[in-house]
UniProtKB/TrEMBL annotation:
<keyword id="KW-0464">Manganese</keyword>
<keyword id="KW-0378">Hydrolase</keyword>
<dbReference type="Pfam" id="PF21337">
    <property type="entry name" value="Peptidase_M17_N_1"/>
</dbReference>
<dbReference type="GO" id="GO:0006508">
    <property type="term" value="P:proteolysis"/>
</dbReference>
<dbReference type="InterPro" id="IPR048816">
    <property type="entry name" value="Peptidase_M17_N_1"/>
</dbReference>
<dbReference type="GO" id="GO:0005737">
    <property type="term" value="C:cytoplasm"/>
</dbReference>
<comment type="similarity">
    <text>Belongs to the peptidase M17 family.</text>
</comment>
<keyword id="KW-0031">Aminopeptidase</keyword>
<feature type="domain" description="Cytosol aminopeptidase">
    <location>
        <begin position="308"/>
        <end position="315"/>
    </location>
</feature>
<dbReference type="GO" id="GO:0070006">
    <property type="term" value="F:metalloaminopeptidase activity"/>
</dbReference>
<dbReference type="GO" id="GO:0030145">
    <property type="term" value="F:manganese ion binding"/>
</dbReference>
<protein>
    <submittedName>
        <fullName>Peptidase B</fullName>
        <ecNumber>3.4.11.23</ecNumber>
    </submittedName>
</protein>
<dbReference type="InterPro" id="IPR043472">
    <property type="entry name" value="Macro_dom-like"/>
</dbReference>
<dbReference type="InterPro" id="IPR011356">
    <property type="entry name" value="Leucine_aapep/pepB"/>
</dbReference>
<dbReference type="InterPro" id="IPR000819">
    <property type="entry name" value="Peptidase_M17_C"/>
</dbReference>
<keyword id="KW-0645">Protease</keyword>
<dbReference type="Pfam" id="PF00883">
    <property type="entry name" value="Peptidase_M17"/>
</dbReference>
Length: 465
């Protein structure tokens, strides 16, 4: 599964095939430097310099490659991804400059999910050289974090239940010298009652738990990262239709993002005290499933009337946000595959971003723009809070109209985010992400996907790096 970690290597003058990057505007000028047979070869491949085109040009006993990009002067993460997908295995270097941000897509283009298939006939790696050796480590770490999200999300629920998610967290903890504490059973019911309620109907092998990873100096600024870890979502007693259940192995995508972001924070040694919490559950159906109309108590003490058992992600997140708030974090970021409403509004590519502070939203949006991980801010419009009113409890978990579903879910979560050490509302950002790519793009295969991860990472690196 995943991706090799040596796809980017330092350029020490070793043999490598040249890659020339051109666009439609300068392709004619580039062609003038070629021989007649070379121009004919590109013409036969219908190469015009358009974006993502790949051409192979004979050069004596060897050959070189040509790639079409929008602008050779300003590369994106994905400019060379098609080359990494289509060129033969081998070692390559860009002929007229550095790959720069294209280092990322070169790696992610070679991601494969092979857990259930025989990959012995797969072609070998395409290696890209760079003289900017200082960028290799960070670029590899970032691509590996994306691959981790993809691996976890692509794995079916039978093999990626709460216990398997715990194993992944334990692996990260050992790798980075962090501590993982796991709350389950009677202790879970007492300490995280809504996590227990959502997960109690699952089989014993998929029993609910709270994963809490801690790392870093205890006197450092506290960074809290939370991820929704619903390993499969049937909808509960408000059961989903078959079409709605088909992709629900990805409902732990928020937890996957949280673990991947935590790995980047620890790997880079950011000067923070990290608290990463993932409530890991399966929202199953059995005789002891929580019901529509039930009133659940929460860790914070608020009572929650259940209007819909399929609005379960916000329940497990609420207890996790409450626990993280107890650490008085300087900033708190959560990821969740929370609402279909966010997808209706923004489609599959754009995570919906909610923040309490405008400046935090701007930092995240700018980091996403600069690193090809765009997000879109939606409002926490307080007037809609009345839609969560309950006649018998402090709040409902779902509203009964079809309006602003992503914002209303965010308002529910906001009730469980506390104050920082200065007694001010915690600086909190919430990503309602899809964690899935329904159609492949260069460097971005169909399947599990990290959406919002790089925006959050580069924002945090700018703050704490």
């Amino acid at each position: 599964m995943g991706m090799k970690n040596d796809l980017i290597q330092p350029d020490r003058g070793q043999d490598a095939i040249a890659i020339h990057l051109v666009n439609k505007e300068n392709f004619t000028e580039f062609s003038k430097r070629l021989s007649g047979p070379q121009r004919a070869a590109l013409a036969a491949q219908k190469f015009t310099g358009a974006g993502y085109q790949v051409g192979i040009v004979p050069d004596g006993d060897s050959w070189f490659a040509v790639g079409g990009v929008a602008n050779p002067e300003y590369l994106s993460s994905w400019c060379m991804a098609k080359l990494a997908e289509q060129l033969p295995a081998g070692t390559y270097r860009r002929a007229d400059g550095e790959p720069g941000p294209a280092l990322h897509g070169w790696q992610t283009a070679q991601y494969r999910f092979t857990r259930y298939v025989d990959d012995k006939d797969a072609e070998g790696p395409r290696i890209l050289l760079t003289t900017d050796a200082g960028k290799i480590g960070p670029a590899v770490a970032e691509a590996q974090a994306v691959a981790l999200v993809r691996d976890l999300v692509n794995t079916p629920a039978e093999d990626m239940g709460p216990a398997a998610l715990e194993e992944q967290a334990e692996k990260l903890a050992k790798e980075h010298g962090a501590k993982l504490s796991v709350t389950r059973g009677d202790a879970l019911e007492q300490e995280y009652p809504m996590v227990h309620a959502v997960g109690r109907a699952a089989a014993r092998s998929h029993a609910p738990r709270m994963l809490h990873l801690t790392w870093g100096a205890e006197d450092a600024p506290v960074l809290a990262i939370i991820g929704k870890g619903v390993c499969f979502d049937s909808g509960g007693l408000d059961v989903k239709p078959a079409s709605g259940m088909l992709l629900m192995k990805k409902d732990m995508g928020g937890g996957a993002h949280a673990l991947a972001l935590a790995s980047l924070v620890m790997g880079a040694g950011l000067k923070v005290r990290l608290h990463c919490l993932v409530p890991a559950v399966e929202n199953a159906i059995s005789g002891n499933a929580f019901r529509p109309g039930d009133v659940l108590k929460s860790r914070k003490g608020l009572s929650v009337e259940i209007g819909n058992t399929d609005a379960e992600g916000r329940l497990v997140l609420a207890d996790a946000l409450t626990r993280a708030s107890e650490e008085k974090p300087e900033i708190m970021i959560d990821f969740a595959t929370l609402t279909g409403a966010a997808r209706v509004a923004l489609g599959p590519d754009l995570p919906a971003l909610f923040t309490r502070r405008d400046e935090t939203a701007e930092e995240l949006l700018q980091a996403g723009k600069e690193h090809d991980d765009a997000c879109w801010r939606l409002p926490l419009h307080s007037a809609y809070d009345e839609w969560l009113k309950s006649d018998i409890a402090d709040t409902g978990n779902a509203h009964n109209n079809a309006f602003a579903g992503a914002s209303v879910a965010g308002l529910f979560l906001d009730k469980f985010v506390g104050e920082n050490a200065a007694g001010e509302p915690i600086d909190w950002a919430h990503f309602d992400t899809f964690a899935w790519r329904p159609v492949a793009k260069p460097g971005r295969p169909k399947g599990g996907e990290a959406l919002g991860l790089r925006a959050a990472w580069h924002m945090l690196r700018a703050r704490f790096g």
